[in-house]
Design goal:
Length: 208
């Protein structure tokens, strides 16, 4: 007997793993901590913290690659690994590297905003996108991308309450650019592409 389509789909798809909430919460808290550190710490202190974090992250990746048992223990005990990251470089490492790049290449306010867009926008896109089964682009939800842009813009405007982040018109295009890059099927990790592309867009528009 053929089951109705919704029931058949429900039975075919595995239930959402309980790990998704710890991972999303971790992404939000850890991702937000980097732009906040850049914003509130002295510039030199923030730079050294990011360099140190990047070195430790790369060292951990090398250790995982050289000693499989270490990798297996980390994957088993820490509920923050995606299935694709169990044998690959984690998104957290890419985030440390992109944050370090941003703080040395772009203005402080641009670096803070670009990282903040990713930190709040990506969990929002995942939260909305996983529930949206309508029109999708590149396998991703348009509603999720819209949520990314809206939440990122809200966080960006909130950041302008700090005197080092001026209220500027190019914050909105920067948030939209971040959402579009997250939506695009780029081969590199989102933790690299999203903040760097967003920062580049805002920096170019700031010159206009």
């Amino acid at each position: 007997m053929k089951l109705p389509d919704p029931i058949e789909e429900f039975l075919r798809e595995p239930p959402v793993a309980p790990v998704i909430w710890p991972r999303r919460l971790f992404h939000l808290l850890a991702g937000s901590s980097l732009p906040l550190a850049i914003l509130f710490f002295p510039a030199e202190t923030a730079q050294w913290l990011l360099i140190g974090g990047s070195v430790l992250a790369v060292a951990a990746e090398l250790l995982r690659g050289l000693i499989p048992s270490v990798n297996d223990q980390l994957v088993r005990r820490l509920p923050f690994f995606k299935a694709s990251e169990r044998r690959q470089v984690t998104g957290a490492t890419y985030l440390w590297l992109s944050a370090t790049f941003l703080v040395f290449v772009f203005q402080k306010d641009v670096a803070v905003l670009a990282l903040l867009f990713l930190a709040v926008g990506d969990p929002a896109a995942a939260l909305i996108g996983v529930r949206d089964h309508r029109a999708r682009v590149f396998g991703k939800s348009l509603a999720g991308a819209f949520a990314f842009a809206c939440v990122a813009l809200g966080a960006g405007l909130l950041a302008t309450l700090h005197p080092d982040v001026p209220l500027a018109w190019w914050i909105a295009p920067g948030a939209v650019a971040a959402a579009l890059v997250e939506l695009a099927p780029l081969p590199l990790d989102d933790n690299l592409t999203v903040p760097i592309a967003s920062a580049a867009v805002m920096s170019l528009l700031a010159l206009v």
